[in-house]
Write a structure and sequence with these properties.
elongated; alpha/beta; six-stranded parallel β-sheet; three-stranded antiparallel β-sheet; binds 2'-O-acetyl adenosine-5-diphosphoribose
Amino acid sequence: VILTGAGISAESGLATFRSADGLWNNHRVEDVATIEAFAHNPDYVHDFYNQMRPELFAAKPNPAHLAITKLQKNYTSPINIITQNVDTLHEKAGNQNVWHIHGQINQIVCLNCGHIFETWGDISDEDECPQCNIAGMLKPNIVFFGENLLYMDKVDKLLQKCDLFISVGTSGIVYPAAGFVQIAKFSGADTIELNMEQTSNNYFFDRHIVGPAGTTLPQLIDEILISE
Ligand code: OAD
């Protein structure tokens, strides 16, 4: 299992979440990524994601994403990607078995009927759901604080049976993803962390590799493939 966070997309030019000023793309998280904010001011929240969509549409995968494709093509056991990222760089790189536990920027969910559809265009609070035709119920399919993560049953199973857990570019602050290493470790997996810096999840990782993921992940994957 490979768990990815914003750091794997940094070398594709996308901002990570926890910048020094604590803002996310110049916004307070409470204003744009909570279910309360969405209920209170849906147009403001839609605008934020509408502005983000073109940048993520244009972004290109970097050597870290491409190395995962190489691993999936050449490794004998299945590799699953659990990502906290709402960008689609794993898919653009050709990665398979990608689980977007925080949702993805190019999907919209109808809060009335549950229909999920894809778009890279703008969404407003006046838009109707293409399935139930009710207006004002569309929400970016992004998990806000106060909502449940997606695919958790599948993720639990993957963590409990994996024998290698690699974490790439995540600060290890936001639960439950921050606790995935612990589940994998207790299930007997070898655990490796790749990050620009040492994180506070030290105890459960067998190995830390410090440096940019675009360099360190391709090196690690070559090492894994040679030693298989
Ligand atoms: P963060 O911004 O918290 O952390 C990014 C991590 O990537 C940091 O630990 C950096 O040191 C590391 N990093 C930066 N550049 C790197 C590079 N080139 N190579 C390797 N590592 C690098 O992002 P996440 O951990 O992904 O949730 O944040 C988790 C969640 O918090 C996000 O998914 C988001 C936010 O609330 C939602 O949107 C629901």
